Amino acid sequence: MDASLIERFVAIVGERYALREEADIAPYVTERRGLWAGKTLLVLRPGTVDEVSEILKLATETGTPIVPQGGNTGLVGGQMPDQSGDEVVLSLSRFDKIRDLDLQSNTITVEAGVTLQRLRDAAEEAGKLFPLSLASQGTAQIGGNLSSNAGGTGVLAYGNTRDLCLGVEVVLPTGEVLDDLRKLKKDNTGYDLKNLFVGAEGTLGVITAAVMKLYPQPRGREIAWLGVRSPADALKLFGKASDRAGQSLTGFELMIHDSLEFVLRHVPDTAHPLSEPYPWYVLMEISSGRSADDARKLIEEILEEGFEDELVADGVLAESLTQAAALWNLREHMSEAQKPEGASIKHDVSVPVALIPQFIDEAWEAVKRLEPEARLVCFGHMGDGNLHYNISQPVETQLADFLARYREINDAVHEIVRAYNGSISAEHGIGRMKRDELIATAPAVATDLMRRVKKAFDPAGIMNPNKVI
Amino acid sequence: MDASLIERFVAIVGERYALREEADIAPYVTERRGLWAGKTLLVLRPGTVDEVSEILKLATETGTPIVPQGGNTGLVGGQMPDQSGDEVVLSLSRFDKIRDLDLQSNTITVEAGVTLQRLRDAAEEAGKLFPLSLASQGTAQIGGNLSSNAGGTGVLAYGNTRDLCLGVEVVLPTGEVLDDLRKLKKDNTGYDLKNLFVGAEGTLGVITAAVMKLYPQPRGREIAWLGVRSPADALKLFGKASDRAGQSLTGFELMIHDSLEFVLRHVPDTAHPLSEPYPWYVLMEISSGRSADDARKLIEEILEEGFEDELVADGVLAESLTQAAALWNLREHMSEAQKPEGASIKHDVSVPVALIPQFIDEAWEAVKRLEPEARLVCFGHMGDGNLHYNISQPVETQLADFLARYREINDAVHEIVRAYNGSISAEHGIGRMKRDELIATAPAVATDLMRRVKKAFDPAGIMNPNKVI
């Protein structure tokens, strides 16, 4: 990038919002796990749709690659510039307005840079629920959540970020603005453009605002921690719970014993919820729009059936908000608690729900063939068919030896995922991390169609190049 | 189309499944309302994906336009060839297999030509619910439902056809087959191609099969018919009902008195459910996964609140399945009961839910300015913001005089829809009927993107030309 081009970009947002000093730029080119460091000469922080439009127009005209960035919490490197220094980072963080809150239509219209936590808080203050919930919600921005179609624990009852979005405002690579900020649950007027931008990881345009759905705040909520003998039992329990509770079943997390063990070992102020260990656990959450009593009654009905059918070996119901938070806390620290145990080879996969028990076993056999002493740290959203199928470093093995098997173990697990007609990225996206694998393993017809879409929307190829496709 | 080209197409499916006689062709080029008669020399009824692929390949090679057709129940002419006789109709009716039923993953994999009724029945026999429900379900095929993203009364709790679909198998205009028949609730591996084909009305490719979601059969169901004083009261009641019931609120239909009046007048064996008339009615349905008692208790809680807050003027609860069916029957005949009352100018619109009362009034003022004696026959899915805002011919006005105002009245209503940021086709699609209006009134950026998608997927322009875009 030559100096005069940089000046033209700077002129659009003004000196104050164009970062050029290394120290200012640093937070935008490193991410918390240190996996995807990049380089850039310029971070732009536009404050209006017009400015974004001007930036993209100039980028298209000059062939300058643009990397849109939200809260920089993505897990696959989608928000990072490459090492060339030629890519300009476009931060959406100044798009921080809540434009509209419509309590009767149950919608909130927010700009892309609003953090997920702020969005959840704004909903709560208005007596509503915005159900998307992620460990990174204090930093993650809704624009990034949309671009990566974020998942999390709320998907079971409320769907992915895609399902929570009714309309978007997008600046196209040409600088044109697609204003589709509509609050409509039903609209059959032509192709579904919204869902192309959602999940495109910034490769088709820049989402600057969105209309998101709101839900009623539950009047009752109950949390149970259950010991189960096997994923097969957990699956049967899930079937019974969801038949009975429908959308009132707002959480059903499956966790192997070791994931809990690591949390108890490394996270302060945690305790085993049950008097003895079980091979697997389920965290079940029930929400009721009617009353606290109703939620209690419903979860008791489900547990009664679960005990009778011998699907639940032991269980405890949270008796206070504090206890409920403590149970969720165990689940939420599982990823983090793996760190002190050494390296971890992670898989964010989904398979048809019915095949989860079989998948867990078959993948584990494959991993053990490669690394007999590996430890399985498997936890995830059973009802969504989505598991974080993580392999922790064996106690007696050296880090380098374990990491040398990274690709092999990855391939072995993903191979089985594909045989099950599953997904190698259930909720984190493709970004840089899985691009080559996607291209190598997805049906050629699918990747070809994706390339055609990319070319149709971004003929100059300036939007987040070499990500996704 | 010259004779040798016809022979080449016929050779793909065999003589038996290529219709060339006028009598055989007739059912494919007329639809039940007689609005969209077309012409064709050839109807092809392929039986395998390979045959569809061969047909489209030949069509692309020779520039022959193809019109895919399901049950021929579409309301906007999307399934009809034009008058030229140059377009070949591709019927999916032989794609009638249920390929897979997975009770634990809650999915059913069906071919495009399976009728909606058969799909619903297959689910029911397996103890499950497929919630899509339409008046035309005995004839409509799931491929057509997907292509038009059909709506209906089940959308409130379960979503549109799009929301019920997990994966598709599609033959592209080139003859390539996209096999994306996956049973995954979560899959973030690249652009959302599925949702492009769903709702594309056969203009991007031919859907040959799909994985659809199943739900538990409710254990209890309650139906209430309520008299309300105004749409504003109905809206408040809807808010309270959905806060309390969440997804257990499986129906909330708003209907003006005249829609009921017409049914009572023209449909045999119908009776007014209440002892006196009210300006508006609500049909409310509650489903419970728990028990019949639970459904009863929930609807009683809602009605109690509704009466206390004076939102409900009078109401009746169905005391038997027969009574419940009779109440739904009133709602389902509203469209048909308009016919004996003369011509009808229909609008399938959606607006933000909060604006429904205001929209009804403002649109009615606009219509009355054009046709002071017109009769408003407004009914629809309040919770989806979707109204069938139909205008019936005034009693004293001649048919021709009324129909002469068609365009004017249409424009006036749609003008207000647009001012409310609504949709001029909430659930029926664009087809031929609304194509010109879509192009003339949608933002140029949106129609331009749609054209780019169309060109990227169907460069030869053979798929259902001059529909949608």
Automatic annotation (TrEMBL), chains A, B:
InterPro entries per UniProt: FAD-bd_oxidored_4_C (IPR004113), FAD-bd_PCMH (IPR016166), FAD-bd_PCMH-like_sf (IPR036318), FAD-bd_PCMH_sub1 (IPR016167), FAD-bd_PCMH_sub2 (IPR016169), FAD-linked_Oxase-like_C (IPR016164), FAD-oxidored/transferase_4 (IPR051264), Oxid_FAD_bind_N (IPR006094)
Keyword Flavoprotein (UniProt): yes
Name of the protein in question: FAD-binding oxidoreductase
Domain FAD-binding PCMH-type: 36-217
Keyword list, A-Z: FAD, Flavoprotein
Family, similarity comment: Belongs to the FAD-binding oxidoreductase/transferase type 4 family.
Keyword Zinc: no
PROSITE patterns with a match to the protein in the record: FAD_PCMH (PS51387)
